């Protein structure tokens, strides 16, 4: 427990709690990937999964599809390129446009991810049962509600 967990204004610190929860999940996800021999950060898994499922995509396509800032995605892409998991290629129709594709190493990681993500989803479902709350559903509801009306309204 931290100071804000028991403070009388604890509800105002929901972002702090969710950030700490996300940090725990990321840390455990990194360990899971490491144990499986997948040498990428857990925050790049969705990017690898997307390219593996949809083939050649541009950084802009990925940013829009994942709903993440282009600059953040570019950093994650650079990391995966440096790790030899994805490669940049010129688009056949437009040589100026760069598309991403999995390398042989990326294909191997993608295949392992299918198993790991299935196991992780089962574990997370067990967590949701234990706490009697599907955090994914409630997170989406909260984001939609805040998109409609700010907490300042």
Description:
The protein is mainly alpha-helical and 153 residues long. 65% of the residues lie in helices and 7% in strands. The protein is built from seven helices and two strands; from the N terminus they run αααααββαα. It has helices at residues 3-6, 14-35, 45-54, 59-66, 70-82, 104-131, 135-148, and strands spanning 86-90, 98-102. Strands 1-2 form a two-stranded antiparallel ribbon. α3 (45-54) packs across α6 and α4 crosses α5 (70-82). The chain starts with a helix and ends in a 5-residue tail after the last helix.
Give the topology, please.
Layout: H1 3-6, H2 14-35, H3 45-54, H4 59-66, H5 70-82, E1 86-90, E2 98-102, H6 104-131, H7 135-148
Antiparallel strand pairs: 1-2
Helix pairs in contact: 3-6, 4-5
Note the quaternary state here: single chain
Biggest beta-sheet profile = 2 strands, antiparallel
> Overall 3D geometry?
globular
Structural class: mainly alpha
Considering the chains and any ligands shown, give keywords for the structure.
153 residues; mainly alpha; 65% helix; globular
């Amino acid at each position: 427990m931290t100071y804000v967990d028991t403070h009388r204004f604890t509800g105002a610190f929901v972002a702090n709690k969710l950030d700490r929860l996300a940090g725990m999940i990321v840390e455990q996800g990194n360990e899971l990937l490491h144990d499986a021999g997948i040498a990428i950060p857990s925050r790049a898994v969705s990017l690898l999964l997307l390219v593996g499922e949809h083939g050649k995509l541009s950084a802009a396509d990925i940013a829009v599809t994942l709903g993440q800032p282009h600059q953040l995605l570019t950093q994650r892409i650079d990391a995966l390129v440096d790790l030899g998991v994805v490669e940049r290629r010129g688009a056949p129709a437009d040589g100026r446009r760069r598309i991403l594709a999995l390398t042989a190493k990326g294909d191997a990681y993608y295949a392992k991810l299918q198993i790991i993500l299935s196991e992780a989803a089962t574990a997370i479902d067990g967590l949701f049962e234990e706490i009697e709350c599907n955090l994914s559903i409630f997170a989406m509801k909260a984001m939609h509600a805040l998109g409609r009306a700010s907490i300042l309204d």
